[in-house]
Amino acid sequence: MKTRRHFSALRLLIAVLLAITTADIGKGYADDDIRANLAASGGQEIVPASSSLDDQQPKQLSAAYNMEMAAAAAGDDLDQDPWEDFNETMFNFNREVLDRFLLKPAATAWDFLLPDLVQKSVQNFFDNLAVVRRVVNNALQGKMTGAATELARFSINSTIGVAGFFDMAKLGFGIEQSDEDTGQTFGVWGIGPGPYLVLPFLPPLTVRDGIGYAFDAAMTPYIYFIPWYASIGGTATNVVNERSLNLDRFERVAETTVDLYSAVRNAYLQRRAAAIKQ
Hints:
By secondary structure, the chain is mostly helical. It is 68% helix and 1% strand.
C-alpha cells in the first residue's frame, strides 16, 4: 500500500514537472508582446482591455505594479535581469535548438495535416480544461464576477460547445474569458517579481511567475485521472498545436526585431505588470 502511494505521488510530481517544462515554449516571441514593448519604448501608454466587469472599475495601482511597470517601461534591466548572461544563453538554446530542431518541425507538420479550424478547436479544448486555474485565481484576487464568468463559460462550452472544442460562450453569448494565473495573484498580493529568468524548455518568466507556474500546473484537472504518459501526450499536443497556430507570427517577429532577447524580456515584464493592474 505504501509503495502504491509513493508511486502515485511520483506520477503526480512527474506530470506537474512535465506540464511546467513543456508549456508555452516560444509564446514569448508573439508579436503582440513585441508591439507592447515598442509602444512602451515610444512612451505610449498601454491600456489592457478589460476581460470582466471587475476590470471596468477604477482601481488603485499596487506598489508592486508601479515598480514593475516603471522598471519595464524605463528599461531598468539592472534590477530586473541580474542573470542576463545566463538568461540570454538559455534563450538562444530554447530558440535555436529546441524550437528550431524540435518544436517548429513538429508544428509545421501539424499545420500541414490539420486545417486551422481543427487546430483552433484543439486550442479551445485545452483552454477549457484550465478553468480551475482561472476560477481559483479570480477568486483569490477578489474578482468574483470573473470567477462566476469562468464557471459560466465552462458550463456552456462543456455542453453545447462539445466538450470545449467550440467557444460557444463567446460566439453565442458574448462571454469573454477572464484569465488569471497564480503569478498574477502573487503580484496582486504585493509579492515582488524577483529576477527575470529563462530556463531550458520554459517560456520567459520571473522567479515569482515560475513558482506560480508550479501551482497552476497542479490545478490542471486531467493529470490526476489519466496515466502519466497520457498527460505527457496531452501536454505535448497542446504545445505543438499552439506553436502551429503561431508559425507566421513568430517568423515575422524574429525577422523584424534586432535584439530579440531584450525585446521579449521587456515586453514580458511590461505585460505581466499590466496584467497585475487589471
